[in-house]
């Protein structure tokens, strides 16, 4: 099971993903630059990613608190998600996301 | 600042999160009174700011407790020791004034509070909470600071500074809405911009804002700032994008972006503590740093095997307190006692 992550320099990596892990945890554990300051509490918007267009519909839609928190992210787009709110499962094998710009 | 205003104390605790609060308890049992400094307007650190409602499952003795619940309990637990809180402040400068055997420090906050202290206990977690800066290209040039521009601000210190200005406020939370309503009467024109027509701020603020828009006293736009325009350091307009991807401009000489808070190490980086990837190395016997008299506990420290758990920070506070006692009372023997059996400790806790 894998997830493809494009970093802010445009480099794409294929990371091994584990079922039941949050996408944020997978990206962080592989050492990619994602702040994830609140540790997955949907409280900081520092794990903002863009989901590849063909995957947007396959994910469960964001809950109200995720949409609220996205207000604190920069350059939010229709395919914006918080990686801490995406729980990895076999159906997501091959998911591709791009790391969004970080706020300083 | 005259000498009269200097607070002389045994220990200054940097950060009023769970570890700083529990340090008050452990120090209190050893007759050491603490002053705490925190940049937030409230006590509790990340527990109170980031996840007050979230359940925590790994605090010993609590099968489940929320972030705020834990903070409330800690505040109750340290009441007997009457800690002094200096909130809304950040320590700007720390200067050693003693020796390795008898440390002393002069500590100054950005609000002008000055401490003359024997020891400093850093319990600063992930750093100080500061406003997030959006990575808008060229934003630095317009930031309101000495040597820079006077167009972009991340906080309002004096409302009067915005009188007669064309202010663009960005955000949908309470900070954005509160400042929109407060600055609207004194600014020349206020525009509030948010990425969607749905605001998470308090409903009555949102209603007030919508009423002002309806009566033509301010503007509300949907979109996001993608760029800034202006000669040199003088802001003239924000370049924005709406939901359909269309670009438009908003004329403004002042931009106030409210994107929430982020944690930054801040001035601690300049205290000569041999940082390792923004963490403070500490020994595991007394959690003292490379500078005698300065201790580091909780998420901000690092040592072999470190786990960033609240419970680890509690243990670190207990051990650090023992060494702090040596500096504060060099001639006093420290006897190890249990709160269950020691009437002396129970008296300090007000239960005997």
TrEMBL record, chain A:
Gene Ontology biological-process annotations = P450-containing electron transport chain
* Annotated keywords: 2Fe-2S, Iron, Iron-sulfur, Metal-binding
The name on file for this protein is Ferredoxin, 2Fe-2S
Give the Gene Ontology MF terms in alphabetical order: 2 iron, 2 sulfur cluster binding; electron transfer activity; metal ion binding
Output the superkingdom of the source species: Bacteria
What is a single Pfam family found in this protein's UniProt entry? Fer2
Q: Which family does it belong to?
A: Belongs to the adrenodoxin/putidaredoxin family.
- 2Fe-2S ferredoxin-type domain boundaries: 1-103
Q: What is the lineage of its organism?
A: Bacteria, Pseudomonadati, Pseudomonadota, Alphaproteobacteria, Hyphomicrobiales
The cofactor required is:
[2Fe-2S] cluster
From TrEMBL, chain B:
Q: Which reaction does it catalyse?
A: 2 reduced [2Fe-2S]-[ferredoxin] + NADP(+) + H(+) = 2 oxidized [2Fe-2S]-[ferredoxin] + NADPH
- What cofactors are annotated for this protein? FAD
Keywords attached to this Swiss-Prot or TrEMBL record, sorted alphabetically, are: FAD, Flavoprotein, NADP, Oxidoreductase
Q: Does the keyword Plastid apply?
A: no
An example molecular function term from Gene Ontology annotations: ferredoxin-NADP+ reductase activity
The FAD/NAD(P)-binding domain sits at: 10-304
Per UniProt, FAD binds at: 19, 38, 46, 51, 91, 129, 299, 340
* Pfam families, A to Z: Pyr_redox_2 (PF07992)
EC number(s) on file: 1.18.1.2
Q: Which family does it belong to?
A: Belongs to the ferredoxin--NADP reductase type 2 family.
Q: How does it assemble?
A: Homodimer.
- Official protein name in the record: Ferredoxin--NADP reductase
Recorded source organism is: Bosea lathyri
